[in-house]
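As a warm-up, study this chain.
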Amino acid sequence: MAIAKAERLMNLALCLLGTRRPLTKHELRSSIEAYRGAFGPGSASDDSFNRMFERDKDDLRELGLVIETVDGIDGETGYLARRDSNRLPPITLDAEESAALGLAAKVWQQARLAGAASGALQKLRAAGMPLAGERDDVDAGQPHSALEPRIPTHEAAFEPLMLACRDRRPVVFDYRKSNAARPEQRHLEPWILECWRGHWYVAGWDRDRDAERVFRLSRITGKVRSRQGKFTAPVPDHVTVRETVERWAGEAATGTARIRLRAGHGYPLRARALAVRELGDGWDELEIPYGHGLDAWLVEFGPDVVVLEPAELRTEVVDRLRAVAKG
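Now compare it with the structure written out below.
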């Protein structure tokens, strides 16, 4: 039925756009097959057709079609949709806006949105709207910028979680914490996906813990499965969720830590260091911000990092390394 209605609305729109003079209800009824089949002689009353026609006309207007009503000489009302009234205005973008569009499209080259982004840019170019940074002597479909931004989305969990966030659907998946040998099942009401330091995180309401939680996509094992039902917890605004991801991923520092770092290694740590001191023998001592999630980050550097203080951070890193060693 939905397909039949869409086809009927499309035919009605084409008739109204294709005519040079107003068409009466009778003319539209005899011109559109869906109206003829449903409201032919002896099949339905004029009142039923009139109600359907008025609903269809209102639906087209809600979709943005400008339909004019014209009183004829004979007193019968006619309808038409002038092309000039239903043509989009010329697209005008300043340099900053066009640059932002081009940048956004390039970011999603590896994601599900890549096709939509590429198609949108092609339509803009076809309308004569060059994007900032593109040259006439370079193929618009080929990358030529010195800097090509990308957000990697290699995790299989990215697409189902993105759709679940959009549709507000609960999900269930198996999750392996960095200090655990085996994954455990988690039930989540996903709010939003955030990329931080090259890793994707999903923030949401953990039904098992009855609290707000953040999960790193690379630690999700198996498939993300959707569940029926609505969210049970309110969804906070975007800014709050982003701060939550940064806090759980270790962005919000509450103190400082001292670590030993092998020379020539750990450049992300060196970039955040508050102070660096050469120790000799191939090691440096760094003072870095200390916050939630730092232990999980330090584990990724393996034998190139040794935690000196605080003691609780050293214990957390050792526990994580032992869990990894146990498999």
